[in-house]
Amino acid sequence: MTPQDMETRIVRYGDLHPCKTAFIDAHTPGSDQKENFTIIGGGVSESPDQHVHIAIPHGFNIGAAGQPPKCRNSLHSHRTAEVFFVLKGRWRFFWGQHGTAGEVVLEEGDIINIPTGIFRGFENIGTDYGMIMAILGGDDAGGGVIWAPHVIVDAQEHGLVLGDNGKLYDSKKGQRLPDGVNPMPLLTPQELAGYPEPSAADVVPGYVARYWDMMAMADPAPVVVIGETGMLRDKPGFEVAFMNRNSADEAMHSHDRPSVLMPMRGHWKVNWDGGSATLAPGDTMSVPADLMHNAIPAMTGEASLFHIIATDDAAGATWTG
């Protein structure tokens, strides 16, 4: 594969296209400065303005959220796994219908596998613009977002209505629901009762991995962070591995399905049959199935990288209580 062909499978951090109207809370004060990025797959954006960088199916979606300090993402749930790692900044993740069941603060490089079927949100509590990278299970990411009822009500008060077709309509732009489309119904009390409210003590030990723990464990070989045999044992439909300078291997290898490389620290040189490219933190590279390749640090200093590949497990529920 030529370098020109492979360049179409690399999304550079500086080339990311933000969408500021991706979700129902785009006008809600406190959440109205978010930027959503869809890197691989269609994601779960509710806006026709969302740019998709790479549409090739991988068995999962890759996205990102960029937010200034004190900006939050409203409480929602997914039907498939949702994994985040912090690329830049300091972030608070919280969960429960009103965000009060539990919380955890993540620093740069930390990763969280948020259980499905639980309302979750997050906010940048750092002092500068922050970025978190996201992995969503399944090619269709579970069919969209399920919002806590108060989020939908708040959005309507600020001009945004979500149709039962999963699309947003902005009354500030003169838009209205088309004929045959009704507002997205609010979850009933009976339905809400089915959403768990676990404490931090229930969630953090089995669903959060710290950067420096991963750095220590990825020596001398890469460590599986999320997977059937991972630090966080789960089968969300994909596997997340982590490598650093000490576990990078120059041996060429391939996978029987597309995989994704996402540097966290340092520059990484990816070599393949036909060329090479250098990745920086925030870049995302899709490696085609059956392509012989390797990834090695390109410079001295700290180097770390996440590797994601789909598994044969269903991208289903991960919370067992």
Number of strands: 24
The number of helical elements comes to 5
**Helix content percent band:** 10-25%
> How far is the first residue's CA from the last residue's CA?
46 Å
CATH-level-2 architecture of the largest domain: Sandwich
Summarize the main sheet.
7 strands, mixed
Could you say how many structural domains there are in total? Answer: 2
Radius of gyration: 19 Å
The CATH class of the largest domain is identified as Mainly Beta
In words, what does this structure look like?
This is Cupin domain-containing protein. Residues 69-132 form the Cupin type-2 domain. It comes from Yoonia rhodophyticola. This protein has 321 residues and is mainly β. It folds into two domains: 10-208, Jelly Rolls; 211-310, Jelly Rolls, CATH 2.60.120.10. 10% of the residues lie in helices and 36% in strands. It contains five helices and 24 strands. The chain has helices at 3-7, 149-157, 189-192, 200-207, 211-217; strands at 10-11, 35-40, 52-54, 60-67, 72-77, 82-88, 91-95, 102-106, 111-114, 120-124, 130-137, 146-147, 160-162, 168-170, 208-209, 223-227, 232-233, 238-244, 259-265, 268-272, 275-279, 284-287, 293-297, 304-310. A seven-stranded mixed β-sheet has the order 1-22-19-24-18-16-17, covered by helices on one side. A seven-stranded mixed β-sheet has the order 3-2-4-11-6-9-15. It has a five-stranded antiparallel β-sheet with strand order 8-7-10-5-12. Strand 7 and strand 8 form a beta hairpin. The protein starts with a helix and ends in an 11-residue tail after the last strand.
